Amino acid sequence: MTNHAVRTRFAPSPTGYLHIGSARTALFNFLYARHCDGCFILRMEDTDRERSTKQACDAILDGMRWLGLNWDEGPIYQHQRQQLYEENIEKLLADDHAYVCDCSAELLEEKRKKAIASGEKPKYDGTCRERRLSREKNRVVRFKCPQNGTTTVHDLIKGEVPFDNRELDDVVLVRSNGTPTYNFVVVVDDIALRITHVLRGDDHLNNTPKQLLLYKALGVTPPKMGHLPLILGEDRARLSKRHGATAVQQYREDGFLPEAMINFLARLGWSHGNEEIFSMDDLIKKFNLENIGTSPAVFNQEKLLWLNHHYLRQHSVKDLTSAIRPHIKAGQEHLTTPQWQKLLKELSERCKTLKEFTKAANYFFHDDLTYDATAKSKFFTLQMKQPLTQLRQQLATLERFDEPAIETVFKQVLDKSGVKMKPLAQAVRLALTGRTFSPGIYTLVYVVGQQRTIKRLDDAISQIEETA
RNA sequence: GGUCCCAUCGUCUAGCGGUUAGGACACGGCCCUCUCAAGGCUGAAACGCGGGUUCGAUUCCCGCUGGGACCGCCA
């Protein structure tokens, strides 16, 4: 389907990092625009000057780029569009769709508390509605919200959602400091940017009728709206910091790949039959509004890890190496060797995150090993001393230090000494890595290299003497 | 408290009136095996409850229950 008219946007408020939930909203808007060959716009909702920061903007931009959510227009900064908002306010005021209010914040807060205490809905009481106050410093502008009738949200995902206008409040459009508020600028900008489809979190559904009424007051047909079910934590409450990492960047630092994150996020609230694996191109091709689910989804890190593992295994050695470079603190010179390439392939079978690679390959980058105590007493036994010594001698004589040659040496030692493969392999593994798990033993010996293997076997053999 | 949203395995979900209710993650077992993984096979695991509508409801409607969101001069 091609629809050049489709224009979507992602409009975060730059007050923190890029949240997982926001990222999914961004993704869906991005995918829908791309799917329809439309336009995806990035807009910073930074009208709250107290809370918006440059760092937050940068973090959001950075996260978007990392995920590959490239925008076609923007970033548009709302704090630079004051004049546009001012024009619209004047229009609303002139048309009697808005009014000036001088009720103090303290008084309102008091009334609000009282209302809640007496079991009523906290709502502006309309004191200034008909006072026709003039605009002055320290006064706010409110929307004159119709107090009868029904406003129905025609939601792309939920269907018809009617709201009784009596439930709606006279929202503040302009703060007493002169800056416009969210509910107002979101409407003005979506009009100005000719947005055709608004996909946003479910938490905005209650705002939508107010915004619809604003569109009406402004004489504009609203865009199509779709409210995405929220992403939840394990306790089924809205995903937040207390559930663990919620910043996209945190996942990057923890060694996740953007492909995995995108795939995971896409499947939270959207599906395509029984398919689980989607590249960005697949998603652009297959994404549609019809298959967006209606119920909230719990963020399940196990599945993210599985996907990450999947993409880790799919990456080329070259791509993986460059992805892993930032995670390696010392020993980066090892990253260019054929041994590293071999090890990397083995590691990608076993590790679920880039971060795990460094841990799992610790013995490759560092020479100071600490033997696992239990394993040491189990595998560094006196009867292993001879076979290990034999092995060490023969490995030292090898001219071609490759896996077939290493395997031959192992076979010979096994034959001569009569020990079983398992204890020998485990003893060698412990000697070379300090642990009892690693890639296959021939591969391991090859990867560690002749010099280091000999050195580590010598160390191990002396350990046996000490304990004997 | 008011308004609104939601409801299929533990989790993500398929299902769009008639299915042995399917897949995936996680979990158990078996195989493979020098360890750890990977892989293969396999197992356990769900339609919240009560009313309708219908020949027939997981599916449509209503109620209940449960969970969630929102009620700012935040967005």
Descriptors for this entry?
468 residues, mainly alpha, three-stranded parallel sheet, three-stranded antiparallel sheet, elongated, RNA-binding
Describe the structure.
The protein is mainly alpha-helical. A three-stranded parallel beta sheet has the order 1-2-3, covered by helices on one side. A three-stranded antiparallel beta sheet has the order 4-5-8. α6 links the parallel β9 and β10. α18 packs parallel to α19 and α18 packs across α20. It starts with 6 loop residues before the first strand and ends with a helix. The mean pLDDT is 94. It binds one RNA strand of 75 nucleotides through α4, β7, α5, β12 and α10.
* Low-confidence sequence ranges: none
Please give the number of β-strands. 12
The fraction of residues assigned to DSSP E strands is: 5-15%
The count of helical stretches stands at: 20
Tell me, rounded to a whole number, the average pLDDT.
Answer: 94
- What is the chains' assembly state? single chain
**Percent of residues in helical segments?**
40-55%
- What general outline do the C-alpha atoms trace? elongated
User: What is the radius of gyration computed over CA atoms, rounded to a whole number of angstroms?
Assistant: 31 Å
Which class of secondary structure composition applies to the elements? mainly alpha
